[in-house]
What does this fold into?
Amino acid sequence: MAANKLRPRLDEREWKITLVDQDETHYYQPGFLFLPFGTYKREELEKPKRRFIPAGVDLIMGEIDLVEPTENQVKLVDGTVLPYDYLIIATGTHPTPEETPGLGDDEWRKSVFDFYTIDGAEALAEKLETWEGGKLVLNIIEMPIKCPVAPLEFIFLADAFFTERGMRDAVELEYVTPLPGAFTKPVASKYLGDMLVERKIGLESDYMLERVDTENNKLVSYDEREIDYDLLVTIPVNMGSEYIARSGLGDEFRHVPVDKYNFLSPEFDNIFALGDAAALPTSKAGSVAHFGVDIFTENFIDYIHGRQMREQFDGHANCFIESGHGKGMLIDFNYDTEPLPGKYPLPGVGPFSLLQETEANHWGKLMFKWMYWNVMLSGRAMPIPALMSMAGKIREEVQ
Ligand SMILES: Cc1cc2nc3c(=O)[nH]c(=O)nc-3n(C[C@H](O)[C@H](O)[C@H](O)COP(=O)(O)OP(=O)(O)OC[C@H]3O[C@@H](n4cnc5c(N)ncnc54)[C@H](O)[C@@H]3O)c2cc1C
It folds into this structure.
């Protein structure tokens, strides 16, 4: 998105853009949620990355080994050295099962699964196809994770999936989270917590996992609470790419600290971080990456011409929450305003409803895949403003 938006704004005789990526394939990650339940197949969620790279941008396929910020250069694993005037880091965040004792051992993808990778989601689809029931535990190990609503969506879809297969009575569902409730923000947490209760899904909150005892099928927390499972679906710790730590650019999760309004590193005045790679106090989500890049582009053009950056990102996030049986919810929030009920994007009209389950929201979520492949990635304008609006929102407080 950044390359697509910047290329037409920068004179090709003066500005060279080089894009480095280690993977020829681009994945539609929001689709991973649906793979385990057979709604999508792998082929619908992957496309060659080259298709989205504009003319006038050099694409180098290779793994970044190190950034040397004082030398203004990037080193690749194959020894290539790329000098830069400005560096934009957008290498995302990824599940790292190896961070948690017990994950990634012999039981990995036998009784313990993830769905944050395409291979994990596909393996889980195969497991669910023949699973005869028992206790399914969904566990978030540590925050922050990308798309913090995806685990809730998974458990709602699991409830619908087993109900539709006529085996819901044979399945116990439990949602185990380090958060004090179903979600990070109080109003949404109340709505989503009520949905767990309605669906008879157990909630274990404030759960800080220490290890997974795969021999005895148990989660063990630091305060010694043990939770049994027959099938564990886990969201491993999400961490930025390893080179971030080697380059001394990251926090404890290898996410890059930046100014939350303009994405500039406070330490290096020619390094920006965008999308999931950035340590921002909002959700790690495609919508945040997309809104953020709109703000970034305008600011970057000013910045390189020595002008003040005039735009300020507000942390705008916009996420559909699939809730099963052809319905979904929507949340829209930013750094200062938590998700509130109401209508979106047109006040009073919608067609989408905030914090309310509707069929229109479900169709919005499914339609988004088309928008992603055909509009968003190529940097075309989307009909949604980058900054959040209070129009259509109803203020509500939770006691
Ligand atoms: C299950 C699931 C459901 C989701 N649902 C939603 C949703 O409904 N709505 C929403 O808004 N968001 C959702 N998301 C989140 C969304 O997919 C991400 O926030 C978004 O893709 C982030 O984009 P990014 O460009 O920052 O990082 P990524 O898309 O992860 O891209 C990072 C790139 O960096 C490359 N890279 C990494 N390390 C290196 C290296 N060392 N060398 C070279 N290249 C490297 C990778 O190959 C990759 O191409 C979901 C995510 C998941 C996993």
